[in-house]
Request: fold
Amino acid sequence: MADIKSREARSRNMAAIRNKDTKPEVYLRKLLFSQGYRYRKNVSYVYGHPDIYMAKYQTALFVNGCFWHRHKDCKYAYKPKTRIEFWQKKFASNLRRDSDVRNRLLNENIKCIIVWECSIKKMQKDEAFKRECLSSIGAFLKDTSLYIEI
Reply:
């Protein structure tokens, strides 16, 4: 199946995708700040450059796009119909890097929170779900657990 966009147009679209200060990240940061949590963003001194790092809780928070990080059983983690081999390599590389980052942080006793893009979208539409997610994050920060996905 051929792509409906030219190679140049597709390249421009893909190049426009940001890797920090995305809308889901900004939304979550504002929520966390309003709850009294303080953090640094995109810190370079923590392995993996987490989107949000809460030093007080030694916690790295990543806002993962479902497509790029292959959120299991998520409608946003669809498979592209063109350049299949390229995408398979890209996704495998992303998953390996994510696993490496998570394992290294956990070995350094840095807690990890993964918040998926689909959860952010649901939080924006459903107030009860938003409160539940914020509550889960708050409980996790006070708990001894090292890893959670929302």
User: Anything to note?
Assistant: The two ends are 35 Å apart (CA to CA). The mean pLDDT is 90. Helices lie at 7-15, 23-34, 84-107, 117-125, 127-142. The CA atoms of residues 107 and 146 lie 10 Å apart.
